[in-house]
Each structure stands twice: as structure tokens, then as C-alpha cells.
Amino acid sequence: MTTAPRPVTVGIEALDVYGGSAWISADDLAEGRGLDRGRVKNLMLTGRSVALPFEDPVTHAVNAAKGLVDGLDPAVRDAIEVVLVATESGVDYSKSIASYAHRYLGLPSHCRLLEVKQACYAATAALQLASGYLASGASPDARVLLIATDVGLADERAEYAELATGSGAVAMLLSEQPDILELDLGAFGLHSFETMDTARPGPDIEVADADQSLVAYLECTVRSFADYRSRVADVTLDGTFDHLVFHTPFAGMVRAAHRRAMREFTECEPAAIAADFTRRVEPGLTYPAQVGNLFSGSLYLALASLVDQLPAMTERARVGLFSYGSGCSSEFLSGTVGEGSGQVVAARKIGPRLAARRRLGFAEYTDLLPASRACLLPRPDLTVDAATEWRPDSRGGPPLLALRSVKNYHRHYDWI
To answer: May I ask which residue range the UniProt record assigns to the signal sequence (predicted)?
Structure first.
């Protein structure tokens, strides 16, 4: 018996962001640390999210996905059969964060659960693996829930990088009904090599070589696009893509990568490159400037920003996406956003929720840092005080998951 081939359209059906419930402005943090204002301005940051003492990668993951999952039709929710969590803030060397997310999101038992690690590139790797599974037709109409979640470790030792290090998560529902982004299957470019630009040799330790990280990021930007161009016919950087979205440690780094790529692959003059950055790249930088680097969620925070900033579209637009993870691995991929994508993302009210976060002063922020780092340490027993003064004002919003205790290394959470 022969059957007609199934149409293959795969990508992001729904997307939501948890950008934390508290933040500190870049100006307040820079003043508190005595940093040079000129250099701070070049980062192009408004502020960064800050993890509260009862927030960890699990709570970020669940809080990012909760509204998205609860809003699904029961049949669609029941079709979720893979839960992938991308993180470099894992709380266990064996047990995955996906198992906690699966429990507290109330997902069906017929799920594969998996945690993926490759610094900030992990979510893109998971996206490609999941897309291949969905496109194979092995389980028609299945859904994959992919969550990128991290807690930033930067403090005064990181100097200017402290301003750009956020905490939070991005949740994406992947399926054959890509209402937000339909992937160009088979259209990708890769570039990877071993380097020690950043690493986490311990759960509460982060080491970084800022100069090496910038060099590797810029090199991967141009080499991954060169590989993409070798695989996909008739591609030009300045003509094929209506918009460009980058992994965004901070917007100034993205501007440097865009300029480097445009100089290498186009004949554009400096003024034209600057105008192109404003038109095709800047819409994706609004949310990253408010949240900071979300690590593996960074690229998809930028995608959410782009789609939310676009005016009502009357036709599909092609987007080029650059993903980078320290260590390092990178990929240039592409897809199209459709006419209804803006409405789908706008319904999540990401911008208003970011605006409603509690603003911290510098003293409050520095008091929080030890607890934010300690939440990643393995401890046999711990009681977490979700103190009233730190609880977010949830009036008009959904409840948030909070870490309440650890008993015999088993983490326990509750809704506040």
C-alpha cells in the first residue's frame, strides 16, 4: 500500500518568556560598581533580570512554560511527548531539570524527558533534534516542549559582563503547526571548535575570558554563515533575509557581529551597514536589553522581541538566526514568520510582564547575590525562606513556582 507523502512543516507553534520577577537597571549597577559610563553605554543595555532567593533553573523553566501549557487545548497538551530542557545551570549531574518541569507542569506520563548541555547553543541543538523527530512522521501531530533556562552567576568579579548577565527562561512548543516560526528544514550552517572562552567548572563557579569569547563569537558568525551559503543556493546576507536575529550576550556584541558579517559578505558602505542594523536587527534587541543574556534562551528571547516589535504583516518574512555557545559550537539557520505570528506572541504579554517586574536598588541586589548563587549548590537538606518582602506582586498575574526546601537532595517546590 502506498500513501501520499506528508507535508513537512515544522517549527515553533507557541513561545513564552519568563524574564524574572525582579531586575536592576544598568545605570544603577554601573554606578554601584563604579564602572565607566561610556563603556556601559556601548553595551546597549537597559538592565538585567535578577534571580530572587527562591528562584532556580527549575522555577524559571516552569514559570516560562506554565501559561503556555495551561492555555493549550487538552488534546494538544496531551500530544506533548518530549520535554527538552537546555541549560548550563543544571542542579544535578544525573537527574534532569526536565523531570521537575514535567511534574510541576502536570504533563502527560507518555513523555521522553531530557536535559541538553552545550553552553548557549544547547537550545538550538535541541530545536534541530526535535524538528528532525517531528518531520520524520514517526509520531504524527506530536508536540515537543523545549525550555531554555539558566541562572546567571556574574558578580563584581565579572566587571562589565555583570551588567549583561540575566536569569530566566524561554519556553517553546514545537510542532507541525509552526504559527510563529516555520523552519527552513535542511537550511543550516555550522562552525565549531574547542576553546576556553567561558566555562562552569562547578555549579556556582563561572570563569570567562571576555576577549576570547568575543573573538570566537565573531569568527563563528561569519564561518557558520559561510557554511550555510555553501549548502543553500542563491543566498545573500543582505538580500535573502527580511530580518536577522542573533544570540545576544549584549546588543553591542551583536552590532559588532553584524558589522563583521556585512563587511565580509556584502559590498555595503558603513552608512548602509548601520541602517541595515537598525532595520533588520534592532527589533530583536528590545527584550534582551531589558533582561540581559539568557544563555541558551538568548536567541529565542531575541526572536520573541523581533516578532513582538513587527507591525502587522501581510505576508511571510524570512528570518536568519545565529546561535552561539561557548566552548564552542555555532549554527546559522533560517525560517519564516507568518502573518499571525505577531498576534500569537502578543497574546503572551511578554513586554507588559517585563515592565511589571520589581526594580531593585544596588544594595538590595548585592544582598541577593549569595543566595542566587547558592541555589545551584548540591545540599542534602535546605529550607528556603520565600520571605514576604521578596515575594513578587502577583496581582493580575499567574502564581509563580518557588523553591521551598531540599530534603535528601530532592528539591521541593510550591506555588506562591
So the answer is: none
Other Cβ atoms closer than 10 A to 389? 5
Cell numbers for 98, please give them: 526536565
Q: Is 169 helix (H, G, I), strand (E, B) or coil?
A: strand
Strand 198-202 relative to strand 205-208, pairing:
antiparallel
C-alpha cell at 375: 541555589
Mean pLDDT, each 10-residue run in order, the chain (416 residues): 62 97 94 89 91 95 97 97 96 96 98 97 98 95 97 87 93 97 97 93 85 94 98 97 97 96 98 98 97 97 95 84 97 94 94 96 92 84 72 63 95 94
Name which of 7, 147, 14 is nearest 76 in CA terms.
14
pTM for the structure as a whole: 0.95
- Among 55, 60, 120, 328, the active-site one is 120
CATH H-level, domain 11-180+349-415: superfamily: Thiolase/Chalcone synthase (3.40.47.10)
Instruction: Spell 5-40 as b/e; 16+ CB within 10 A means b.
Output: eeeeebbbbbbbbbbbbbbbbbebbbeebebeeeeb
Q: Given 88, 206, 219, 282, which residue is catalytic?
A: 88
88 catalytic? Reply is yes
Catalytic residue among 60, 102, 191, 247, which?
Answer: 247
268 is catalytic: no
> 268 by DSSP, 3-state: which?
coil
Q: DSSP labels for 168-199?
A: EEEEEEEES--SSEEEEEEEEEEEE----SEE
